[in-house]
Amino acid sequence: MEKGITIQQIISRAIEDHLTLEIDYAKSSFEKSTRTISEVSISTEYGVGYISAYCHMRQEQRTFKISRIVDARIVPSSNKRTVKQVFNYEFDASKPIFNLYGEEY
């Protein structure tokens, strides 16, 4: 992050100009992770101080608490949103079901 520029200013620019960000995010467990996010917008889902964005690591829309963003950088956009695969399984009542230990229900 450049000196004199706040994380809030970087987020605002990403929202206005539809830019992709790379953020260092401190989870509630005090672990830090680096995420690439795009399609950033202000979120009111949990109150004030949150953004919603597409997380490229999790491949889904996520909500981030702004106060937990330790650092933010504008990065080149790949314009390639990864589609998370969804598998549709149909339940077949004629087949037996087993638990984790191989015991039949």
Low-confidence stretches: none
State which percent range the strand residues make up. Answer: 35-45%
What is the CATH T-level topology?
Answer: SH3 type barrels
Architecture in CATH?
Answer: Roll
Number of strands: 5
Shape annotation: elongated
Whole-number mean pLDDT: 86
Structural class: mainly beta
Radius of gyration: 19 Å
Number of helices: 1
Strand line-up of the largest beta sheet: 4-3-2-1-5
How many discrete structural domains? 1
Q: What is the CATH C-level name?
A: Mainly Beta
Mind describing the biggest β-sheet? 5 strands, antiparallel
- The amount of helix comes to 10-25%
- The string of secondary-structure elements, in order, is HEEEEE
Alpha carbon gap, first and last residue: 56 Å
Provide an overview of this structure:
- Helices cover 10% and strands 36% of the residues.
- With 105 residues, it is mainly beta.
- The chain has a five-stranded antiparallel beta sheet, with helices on one face.
- The chain has a single domain (1-105), classed as SH3 type barrels (Roll), CATH 2.30.30.
Entry keywords:
single chain; 105 residues; mainly beta; SH3 type barrels; 5-stranded antiparallel sheet; 1 helix
Question: Could you give the topology of this structure?
Answer:
Layout: H1 7-17, E1 20-26, E2 32-43, E3 50-55, E4 60-65, E5 69-75
Antiparallel strand pairs: 1-2, 1-5, 2-3, 3-4
Concise summary:
The protein is mostly beta strands. It is built from one helix and five strands.
